[in-house]
TrEMBL record:
Highest taxon above the source species: Bacteria
UniProt entry keywords in alphabetical sequence: DNA-binding
Protein name in the entry: Helix-turn-helix domain-containing protein
Span of domain HTH tetR-type: 15-73
Pfam family, one: TetR_N
PANTHER family: HTH-TYPE TRANSCRIPTIONAL REGULATOR RUTR (PTHR30055), POSSIBLE TRANSCRIPTIONAL REGULATORY PROTEIN (PROBABLY TETR-FAMILY) (PTHR30055:SF209)
Regions recorded as binding DNA: 36-55
Length: 215
């Protein structure tokens, strides 16, 4: 009686191929959102049939990237809150934690509306939006942030600023490890510039030393 063929190496190889395709898609779509699946297959070092075996079309590939981004976002958010931390430090910490997530998946910003749809993007970002709004509400109650705008409205404005800064990274106009963005967000939230820079400098070392939770 013949022994069954071991399938674990095949499964490992399939997982490796899938991860390589996704990593290649993040890189190549970030450079050129119009990159074709055939070009992605060549860049990933796999044949066209292998890529289509994992992702039968562009929509399936982008949805996989969106789900990956959602998982990374949730993992990063697990480290966002610290007990009794002042709201300005909490907002700086949150921005620094989210910056590498946005940097890794910034190509989704260019593809989101057309390929994923506004509803899917809103679903991915909902936890982050809720967290920022809660920080702003707490900061306003504590007198850390001025009450010049409703927290939800200010949160939307700060999100738009982060997107704009990431787009500048995309064009090569800006290089940032997140510290410049975090200071800009605090200033936009109403923190004086010297205080904003001091807060970011105190929070950044520990946050920047933390790797993204999912590769």
């Amino acid at each position: 009686m013949t022994k069954p063929v071991a399938r674990e190496p095949q499964r490992r190889n399939a997982r490796s191929n899938r991860a390589r395709i996704l990593a290649t898609a993040r890189r190549e779509l970030g450079r050129n959102p119009d990159t074709t699946l055939e070009e992605l297959a060549r860049a990933a070092g796999v044949v066209r049939r292998t890529l289509f075996g994992h992702f039968p079309g562009r929509a399936a590939l982008l949805e996989a990237l969106a789900e990956e981004a959602s998982e990374v976002l949730r993992g990063a958010m697990a480290h966002a809150a610290e007990a009794a931390e002042p709201a300005d430090r909490a907002l700086a910490r949150f921005t620094l934690l989210m910056w590498p997530v946005g940097d890794r998946y910034r190509m989704l910003l260019a593809l989101a509306r057309h390929d994923l749809g506004v509803e899917r993007v809103a679903e991915i970002l909902a936890p982050a939006r809720a967290e920022v709004t809660a920080i702003l509400e707490r900061g306003r109650r504590d007198g850390v942030f001025p009450a010049h705008l409703p927290p939800a409205v200010l949160s939307a404005g700060l999100e738009a600023m982060v997107v704009a800064l990431l787009e500048q990274v995309n064009t090569g106009a800006l290089e940032d490890d997140g510290t410049r963005a975090a200071a800009a967000i605090l200033i936009a939230a109403g923190v004086p510039e010297p205080s904003a820079r001091t807060v970011v400098e105190s929070v950044a070392p520990a946050v920047l030393a933390r790797p993204l939770p999912v590769e």
